[in-house]
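Q: Predict the assembly, please.
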Amino acid sequence: MKRLVIKDVSMTFTVPGDAPIRALHEVSLELQPGEIMTILGPSGCGKTTLLNIVAGFLAPTEGEVRLEDNRITSPGEISTVASVRPKSKPHDTRIMGPGADRGMVFQKGALFEWMTVEKNVSFGPDMAKKPRAETRQAVAHLLKTVGLQDFATKPVYQLSGGMQQRVALARCLANDPDVILMDEPLGALDALTREKMQGLILKLWKETRKTIILITHSVEEALFLGERLVVMAPRPGRIEKEYRLPFADRGMEDDPRHVKTSPDFTMYREEILSMIWGMEEEIMGRAKEPA
Amino acid sequence: MKNRNPSKLAIWLGLADNSFTRQKTVKFGDSSAVNSGRAWGILMIVTLFILWWLATNRGWVKPIYWPSFDAVISRASLLWTEGFRNVALWDHVALSIYRVLSGVFYGAMLGVPLGFAMGLSSTARGLFDPVVEFLRPIPPLALIPLIILWFGIDEFAKIFLLFLAALFIMTIAARAGVSGVNVSKVHAAYSLGATKFQVLRHVILPNALPEIFTGLRTSMGVCWGTVVAAELVAADKGVGSMIMIAKNFLQTDTVVIGIAIIGLIGYVIEIVMRKLEARLIPWKGKL
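A: Predicted assembly structure:
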């Protein structure tokens, strides 16, 4: 397991004839192996940009991201897609771009609808040309873990939204990544399914002890799932405040409803909500001012 | 209150609505509340045949403008047994279909890679976009004179014309298919360790298949229309040439039969392509 270091990452988009847009300003974070961190913030705070930089889809204009000794992205050089699999060269210091060491779970639309559930999950191992029998066993095990053992041969488009996200989680785990990046993984689900899936994410985290970064719009979700919670603020996108929380650990033993209604949970929720409300007000206020 | 369920036959004929539509109070403007109206369709067909029969039997129209029912039937059986101008009827039809299939095949062979290149590379897009956009709106028939000048009127000329007709449709379909890929899918594939080639093979290509298939369906339709027109201009075999030659001999019945065959085959092509699509690309429009 590897340590993820995000160091002084800034992202500035310059449009000719316009003021530069500072999507991220000197963001630094360090994740120890096995930590689960949630990132929360109003739209435009740069949280998705940050995740895309960590994933290697974007190169920051300043700063760098490292996974132990491997540089994922740094400025100046356009990150090219790794044609060499990162895992085959653990101490390669080239710019890697996206790679199998960092799994992604998207909000929706990222499953391959022309494949069955099984084929989606085995995509990573298949691309790496892992032995068939081994992969099949691993996939069967993962499908059982996410509760889809009876749906292996179904095409993914026949599944409900919640089940599709279960496939996405299993597909990501099948690659055994060091870090899992989740961009609003439960954002498109209804409230009931969402709560159930939060439990699943905690369970997977506990069983696999992966390092996880999860972006969300929901304060409750961020509090419940994050050992660490980072609140980001917009204009420029930056870290506003960081919390260390006990709820992720508690949520695995206790009843989630019980955790979410406990006094300290409620207190945090109100504090963060009013913080974000403040940011929104500020944006609205600025928008109203004449240019 | 009267609540008798209409028979299955009545629903099939469109004389009664199914149980879902029956409960709807808003029907005007709800397109799903419009049933097949098959009974009216049958009525229409029967009426047309009666009119045909009356018009020719009573001498309302001369046989040279429109043949009688009996003449068409006897001519059809003659064509079936003896063919047209020493060529079996089926050979005329098969030749036209063969030309269409070849044209679409070659058009797709070049058009799909071209469309992919245009969707994936700025250079290819820049190079080919002006050419494709300029040639695309030209009806293939307008190219016939030029193609006759270049290649004469042999088989190659006809297939080349159909190839051109299919080429631009396939190029644009493939390009649309590539451009339509959700970037999340591409990102997901790279994050799962796929190489560029694997992303092309396992994500971009399957993702573009529905569009490519729609392109194939459109090309088949367009090429069918084009082949008939091309055969009208210059050919001695094929359904198009059959009706053109029949016209010269004032065989109106053969002309009418030819037109019916052309319509029928166009329809069959469409149906077959739709069935194939549902079979091969069941995920189309889902997710």
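Chain B has a mean pLDDT of 91. The domain at 82-280 of chain B is CATH 1.10.3720.10 (MetI-like fold).
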